[in-house]
Amino acid sequence: VGGEPLDHGKLTGWAMDGFGIYAYQEEGGGVPVVDECGGHFGPVGSGGEDVVYHYHSRLIVPYHLACQGPALGRCAETQSGTSYCGPGCGGFEVCVQPRTDPRKLAAYLSKWNSTWIESYTVNPFNVVRPRVQKIMH
Fold first, then answer.
1. Which residues make Cβ contacts (< 8 Å) with residue 59, sequence separation at least 6?
2. Of 16, 27, 43, 134, which alpha carbon lies 20 to 30 A from 57's?
3. Assign residue 18 a region: left if phi > 0, alpha if psi is -120 to 50, beta otherwise?
4. In angstroms, how far apart are the furthest CA atoms of the chain?
5. Which of 59, 57, 69, 60 is nearest to 23 (CA)?
6. Nearest to residue 37, comparing CAs of 91, 90, 84?
7. 33 vs 31: CA distance, rounded Å
8. How crowded is residue 8: how many other Cβ atoms within 10 Å of its Cβ?
9. For 12-28, what is each residue's pLDDT tens digit?
């Protein structure tokens, strides 16, 4: 089954680090805000019930991921010769998709280390931004 307009991109594969690779689109039709590797923490699935670290395909080379993330601002250290690192999310070490529920992010991170994210700079993800509305016919 193909994707729906304005839904989060569908899972297209798995990276060797075990994180999912999703098509290029956030819920609401938005552009993914990704780190230098091409991934971020954010909701996946219908309604965004699960917050996980995952990658998105991109519109430019390397089309998927440039390194294994989260990048933590260190993508360039993994490159030799040509660098495929993306621009990241404004100089922050950790990228979280805007509108991500902070409680769901905390629950996901608590599976490993609930204070890990506090050691890094994080983009302002809990800022409410206007959403594109689905038009029902």
1. 24
2. 134
3. left
4. 51
5. 57
6. 84
7. 6
8. 26
9. 999 999 999 998 888 88
Structure tokens at 132: 């594109």
Residue 46 pLDDT: 65
> DSSP class of residue 96?
B
Between the alpha carbon of residue 71 and those of residues 5, 36, 121, 131, the distances in Å are 29, 6, 12, 27
Alpha helix (H) residue ranges in the chain? 102-109
Is the model's pLDDT at 103 over the cut of 70? yes
28 in helix, strand or coil?
helix
The rounded distance, in Å, linking the Cα atoms of 53 and 58 is 16
Which residues are within 8 A (CB) of 11 and not within 5 positions of it... i.e. 6 or more apart?
Answer: 20, 21, 22, 44
This prediction has a pTM of 0.84
Buried b (16+ CB within 10 A) or exposed e, 37-56: bbbbbbbbeeebeebbbbbb
- In angstroms and rounded to an integer, the radius of gyration of the C-alpha atoms of the chain is 15
